[in-house]
Write a structure and sequence with these properties.
globular; Hypothetical protein af1432; 168 residues
């Protein structure tokens, strides 16, 4: 029963994001062998749980974590045209946090702390470290979820959240 309480609270916090027309488009994008939507929900949910356990602002952290990979086109197979340092900057791992932040700010109200959580989640690939504890939570949870997805590539790493995602 306690777990259902957490799912319900998480869904209340991020429900408008999960059902937003633009956010729904990430369901079509593959990510670590799973869908980007599933990955984003997992990072959002587990960041929410960590934040709640640490008595942090779980509302703000859940929303930013859910939006951390809000890019709308697949990066696999994208041709890179730049050379040298500019080529590195256009690589997905370096460039997508900024794209995710731009999309998040375009469709949702994002405060400065949430912006930091979104744009710094790829640290150390983003050279400036996270500026608040919530950003570190999102960064760490994203790494854990992504590692789980890569290790168990052909399984859905967040089966317990499946009913939540099917409603979105």
């Amino acid at each position: 029963m306690e777990t259902k309480k957490y799912y319900d609270e998480f869904e209340t916090i991020v429900g408008d994001i999960l059902t937003h027309t633009e956010f729904q488009k990430i369901k079509k994008i593959d990510h670590h062998g799973n869908g980007l939507f599933e990955h984003s929900v997992a990072v959002g949910y587990y960041s929410y749980r960590v934040a709640r356990f640490l008595r942090m602002d779980c509302h703000s952290i859940a929303r930013a974590a859910t939006l951390h990979d809000f890019f709308l086109e697949s990066w696999q197979g994208k041709v890179k045209t730049e050379k040298g340092f500019n080529r590195i900057k256009e690589m997905h791992g370096f460039s997508h946090p900024k794209t995710a932040l731009e999309n998040a700010e375009k469709y949702f109200d994002i405060d400065e702390r949430q912006a930091d959580m979104i744009v710094k989640h790829m640290f150390p690939l983003t050279p400036i470290p996270p500026m608040n504890l919530g950003s570190w939570v999102v960064t760490a949870v994203d790494k854990c979820v992504a590692t789980n997805e890569l290790i168990f590539k052909n399984t859905q790493p967040i089966k317990r959240l499946k009913s939540l995602m099917s409603r979105a």
